[in-house]
Amino acid sequence: MTRPDSLLPRESLLWIFAAQFTVLLPHFTRLPLWIIFGWALAVLWRVEVYRGRREFPGRLVKLLAVSVALLGLVLSYRRWFALEPMVALLAVSFALKNLELLSRRDAFLSLLLAYFVAATLFVFEQTIPYALYGVLAAVVVTAALSAQLGGFSARPRRALGLSLRLLAQSAPLMLLLFMVIPRLGPLWAVPQNSGGASTGISDSMTPGDFTRLSKSDQPALRIAFDGPVPAPEQRYWRGLVYSHFDGRRWSQGFGVDPREGAPVSWRKTENPLPEVGPRYRYRVIQEPTRNQWLFAMARPHSETRGVGETRDDRLVRSVPVYSRFAYDVRSWPRSSLVQRPELGDFERRRNLQLPAEGNPRARAWAQNLAQEHQDGAAISAAVLEFFHRRFTYTLKPPALGQDSVDEFLFGSQQGFCEHFAGSYVFMMRAAGVPARVVAGYQGGEWVDQEEYLLVRQYDAHAWAEIWTPSRGWQRVDPTAAVSPERIRDGLQSAAAEEFMEDSLLPLHRFSLLNRLRLQWDMINYRWYQTVVSFDSDSQQNLLKRLLGEVSPLRLAAFLLIPAAIGLCLLLLWLWWGGRGQQLPRAQRLYLKFCRRMAGVGVPRRSGEAPRDYARRIATEAPRLAAMASAVTAAYERAAYADDPSAERQLGRLLRQWRLGAMLANVAPRRHQAQA
Amino acid sequence: MGTAEHPRGTSLRGLQARWRALTTRWLERRSPAARQVTLSHRKLFILPSRAGLGLLLVILLLWLLGTNYENNLVFAMAFLMASLFAVLPVHTFANLSGLNLRLLSAPPAFAGDFARVRIAAGRIGRRQREHIEICWPPEEGAQFDLVDTESREIDVALPVNRRGRIRAPRLRVQSRYPLGLFRCWSHVDLDIEILVYPAPRDLGPLPLGAAPGEGDSPERRRGGDDFAGLRPYQPGHSLRHVAWKHFAGGRDLHSKDYDSGADTRLWLDWDLLAGRDVETRLSGLCHWVLEAERAQIPYGLRLPGSNLSPSLGESHRQRALAALAEFPLQEV
User: Fold this and answer.
1) Helix (H) or strand (E) holding A575
2) Which sign does the torsion angle of CA B65, B67, B69, B71 carry?
3) Does residue A193 lie in a domain region?
4) CA nearest A293: which of A312, A316, A311?
5) Looking at chain B, which residue has its C-alpha nearest residue A183?
6) Where in the sequence is the domain holding A591, given as residue range(s)?
7) How many domains does chain A fold into?
8) Residues of chain B found within 8 Å of residue A116, distances taken between Cβ atoms
């Protein structure tokens, strides 16, 4: 007799540890080392207890373990309101629970916790491999649960098989729920995944920033267009506007950075943009940057929740982008503007700002230009002409000293986009034309029949915008004056020799590999589009597509009809599995015969031999005697002599009899009708 | 079943008793007593276990996590768990549905001991059954699988405290297969009756040669020299005492009975234990029966209203113990 609540058997323990390991493994890189060691130590201790070499820890040891763990957490994490400490806490509770893994109840607690830990992985990572890993974790934890019953169920193959079967049976309902259950949006503010350094374009630009980015082929944006697609030289994805220059570094500056008090319009109703005219509609899927700014073409407007618009024509998000984020944008090209542009006093001063001293040669030349030419456009043209004649575009510019603009313009004359954009804006400001540096991405690579544009980190770019009273802010790309290929064909052709020569394998050179990489990226994109970014809008769209219109009635039908079908299938399965052993055909036919005989009033007695039964039928219902003896003879031959022809004969006899009975049934009724 | 302590039924215990009576009556109707029972939807109940409620909590937490992080993969996990929660009861139910239970034997037991009832469990159909527990509720009972075999015999123990012919309460058959998150159970009445002998109690050595206390009347014991009449012959009777003349006359074989002042045979007499209460007396007699059986001394049993002439052997022992077990309660 087994005690169900007795000490956990060996298989149970091993399964629990396996489940814990599976769900903790992907967190190992994120967790402090001491937690992993602590967990392993707890497992070891518990195994020793099982082997009888050690006792369960006493109260004092447990208290000590809890205090050490808490102290460790406090020391490891400064911020408590964050995701990592939460996961660390879960891992610690795993470890501590292992020290008192006594009963079935403890086992269940540990495994239910494991389900939760498995799901927390997705808060950090939502890519396909991690999703697959999550499925694996669910399978292992479910198998561990089933193994808790012990006996047959604890055998690995049986437990895993059962777990797979159960989860596979749950999958259809899961998909249905996934499609139908409404997404409410955050109920309260939650800590975000804030670990790791920010990637991509930063909030300031110092020489060398963009060359660093040019070495990375990590995806930054994926952009899918709905409708017209801008030409390659129009694909400028604005992310940041640098208005402040301190002599070396460009930054956003006070009053421009939303974090420093710049106004952001979050309300979707006040829409200053024209409802008509040419515009681009697109959806941007941005990789995590751990920053608030988003990327869009000039004059953007977004209906996506949590996205606001700044005064300098950019989109920002209310919280930093810690995981992939998708937003829908409409952009109006500047030419479609109807309003007369105005530049406020504050903005004018902001965009004419220069450090008090430094770069004297550049300033002097700019003032010359200002006197020679009458308006900003002409000055700009002169500077670009200067760039075009003398400068070379390179990823390896020489280092610059204190007066970086002077040295670049009149010394090295070799540079990268950041040098061109920075010195151009410096020149324009010095000449009295409001100007600013804009950073973002330029270009992108089409993936698979132009389904979407893949923008990588090496597409990072800096350009400029100047103010002209007649047309407002205007984009000017000084790099285009030096190296038009950069803008038209991207960095790879503009600096083919230097491009990514540091990487171990110049992957971009092998077209097959490159195609494979693009294919993989497309699968990722589809995954993100359909699953990860599935929100209430896409839910509405999907339901509309499936149901025609989303009414409560149709929704109920959508939920209930598959549920009813599922229930019927399950009942069928129950019946199938619960049904008796399949009898041989002859037996079944003979039983049918017995049932029919019972129907006419001569039931077979229990234990009555077929031959006796036939004899009794002959006396009690002489009308059926001939048929009964024929059936009995056929049955005996079929059942005991294995005669297949007798089996067929038995079937024929029964069919004939039924036909006869039907005719007999019909005939009296016809008589009655006539009477 | 119902206690008459609180006739108005206002107190909690009264209500409880009433409730129990109500559910018992309902169960009687729904699943009447039978020697053989096949579990079906009429007899099975299913609810999430405590761990199952824990899973519901996990689902809720996952849903909150998914909602707050707007994370579809967490949602998917929550929905997967929820679907699992919907699929599990079907498996748990299917594990018990179609299970066939048949009472094989319910041998007698001594009060204060366990009655071991033998039950045959079989399955209908090909589905394998795992982890079925069968018990009388507070007890642990037995656990069995029907994986490789079609049927199996199980011993279930029921603690019995009172002697007499006991009607066993409903058996609980339950299963938590496959994940322990749902519990499916049935209370079946296999119409089990157990004969419970009194608990043996040592009240002194066997009364060998002791006189049955019958007051002051002259003692009459068999086996003396004075002819006292005839009685049917039984194996063990001395051949010297067979009434051969009687037998020759065409009648059955009889022994001549003699009375004497000193009967050598052992009589376990109710009156030997005078002065104690009924149950103690029965327990003492029970002990003596077992002792005599062990010592292989033929013994007879004298109870008010029934007599068992001296003999030995398994069937005699059973008859003696049965007489003790079925001695009317609350007599004297």
Assistant:
1) helix A552-578
2) positive
3) no
4) A316
5) B67
6) 585-674
7) 4
8) 58, 61-62
Query: Measured between alpha carbons, how far is residue B65 from residues A90, A325, A662, B73 in Å?
Result: 14, 17, 67, 10
- Report yes or no on A194 lying in a domain: no
How do the domains of chain B map onto residue ranges? 30-196, 221-325
> Do A380 and A497 belong together in one domain?
yes
Q: Quick one: pLDDT at residue A675? A: 40
With bands split at pLDDT 50, 70 and 90, how would you rate the model's confidence at A510? low
State whether B131 and A153 contact (CB < 8 Å).
Answer: yes
Q: Do A549 and A443 lie in a common domain?
A: no
Residues in chain A: 675
Dihedral of the alpha carbons of A523, A527, A533, A534, in degrees to the nearest 10: 140
Q: Is the ipTM, as predicted for this complex, more than 0.90? A: no
Comparing CB atoms, the residue among A105, A126, A184 nearest residue B67 is A184
Nearest to A274 by CA among A336, A343, A341, A342: A336
How far CA A382 is from CA of A366, A476, B175, in Å, comes to: 10, 13, 88
Cβ atoms within 10 Å, residue B136 = 20
Verify that A646 and A546 share a domain, yes or no. Answer: no
Residue A441 and residue A544 in one domain: no
CB-CB under 8 Å, B98 with A186: no
Instruction: Note the pLDDT of residue B216.
Output: 37
Q: Is A399 inside a domain boundary? A: yes
For residue B230, the model assigns a pLDDT of 62
Name the H helices within chain B.
12-30, 50-69, 72-96, 244-248, 278-295, 314-325
Distance, in Å, from the CA atom of B214 to the CA atom of B210, rounded to the nearest integer, reads: 12
Residue A330 CA, distance from chain mean position = 24
Q: Which of A108, A176, A324 to mutate to test the interface with B (most CBs of B within 10 A)?
A: A108
- List, for residues A109-123, the tens digit of each pLDDT value: 999 999 999 999 998
Query: Does the structure show a pLDDT above 90 at A607?
Result: no
The per-residue pLDDT for range B205-222, each reduced to its tens digit, is 888 766 544 433 344 444
Q: A565 and chain B: CB distance < 8 Å anywhere?
A: no
- Which residues touch A449 (CB under 8 Å, ≥6 apart)? none
**What is the dihedral angle through the alpha carbons of A229, A235, A241, A244, rounded to the nearest 10 degrees?**
-160
Report the share of chain B in percent with pLDDT over 70.
Answer: 79
Q: Which two tokens stand for residue B226?
A: 């004075």
Q: Which one of the listed residues A257, A403, A417, A419 is annotated catalytic?
A: A417
pTM for this entry? 0.71
- Amino acid (one-letter) located at B187: H
| A/B interface, count of CB pairs below 8 Å | 170
B-contacting residues in A 106-135 (Cβ below 8 Å): 108-109, 112, 115-116, 118-120, 122-123, 126, 130-131, 134
Same domain, A303 and A452: yes
Q: Are residues A589 and A490 in the same domain?
A: no
In the stretch 55-74 of chain A, residues with CB closer than 8 A to chain B read none
Q: At A555, phi and psi to the nearest 5?
A: -65, -45
> Can A226 be counted among the known catalytic residues?
no
For B231, the 3-state DSSP assignment is strand
Same domain, A275 and A336: yes
Question: Closest Cα of chain B to A151: distance in Å?
Answer: 8
> Whole-angstrom distance between the N-terminal and C-terminal Cα of chain A?
75
The identity of residue A526, as a single letter, is R
Which residue on chain A is closest to B139 by alpha carbon?
A: A3
CA A367 to the chain's CA centroid = 54
A90: which 2 tokens?
């879960």
Dump pLDDT digits (tens) for A284-313.
989 888 888 899 988 888 888 888 888 888
A435 forms beta bridges with A466
Residues of A in contact with B82 (CB under 8 A): 173-174, 177
Q: How far apart are CA A126 and CA A326, in angstroms?
A: 13
Flag whether A196 is in a domain.
no
pLDDT beyond 70 at A557: yes
Please check whether residues A110 and A48 belong to one and the same domain. yes
Side chain identity, residue A432? G
Measured CA to CA, the distance from residue B121 to residue B111 in angstroms comes to: 27
